[in-house]
Amino acid sequence: MHELSITRNIVAVVSEAAEGKRVVRVVLEVGKQAGVMPDAIRFCFEVVSDGTAVQGAALSIIEVDGADLRIKTMEVEVSPCV
Amino acid sequence: MCVTCGCGEGAEATVVRIHHHHGHDDGHGHHHDPRHAHPHDHDHEHAHHGHGHDATRPTEVIALEARVLAKNDALAARNRAWFAGRETLALNLVSSPGAGKTSLLERTIRDVGEELAISVVEGDQATSNDGARIRAAGAPVVQLNTGTGCHLEADMVAKALGELAPPLGGVVMIENVGNLVCPALFDLGERAKVAILSVAEGDDKPEKYPHMFRAARLLVLSKIDLLPHVDFDVDRAAAHARAVNPSITVLRLSVRTGEGLAGWYDWLRAQRVASRADRLADL
Q: Does B84 lie at the interface with A, CB-CB under 8 angstroms?
């Protein structure tokens, strides 16, 4: 399955974008024609995110038309406003 | 690690240049590494969608709009530009294991390898068996071993091309790992994917693996010398392929008897001409 490679990419992109903040949710858009299985991503996500900034984050997958595979948003913890 | 195929755990593709048995290189020192440090090319839009307050800590939602395969696609685009700069036609050969990719390459190299200046990037999980066959057929070849990986990616191909240093104006055949599923997703920088389907397989395969057949420009039906012994219907297979990809070209051939090979060589020549024309049109 290539979903492992894809999930690694997702975790890498999100970890970098998080810039040290803890990630609580990642929202992914998966095109129906993308040739990717959302369940396989969910499975790999838990394993791949272990030990990274993305560990423990919830993963929301939205199935859309088309062949694109996109990380839409991520939700991060922020330091309380001073 | 995915239990389905164990793909990817700690995997790093290895690249091996296949030499003559007496160990001499084919004598050119030009090594070009098409890979350089790449910038991060996904968009970072830090649009603040407001603060969500859950029971513990406040959070904020950040829009990333990052295409997951952006990195592979960027490297594939770099490979594509590298091929264009060297006036090289690159083809990505895909199929189930055992459909006849390597055999077709051996025969092609023996017949027109010199005319088309063919060199090969071989992809397998393990062994240099296919690489050795290609070398024996007479073409320069680099063997990629993915370890546990089930498909080639653009970075592996870039490394291989650095080793291979194919001649200007030639053809690079990339033989992907035998797999009709995963390679469809990973652009390597090729001009076109060639899908090979043997008549010993089911003729409904194009419908069962639509992503791959949709991504292919050419469908080669191989081993047609076996038709008297199997239930494969060539016309039905072609129809299934056109149902998922109306613009696909279908050829049939036998490496053993030579039937249909002329059509394949003509297709290769036409692709070379077309890719040159496309390059000029881009200027």
A: no
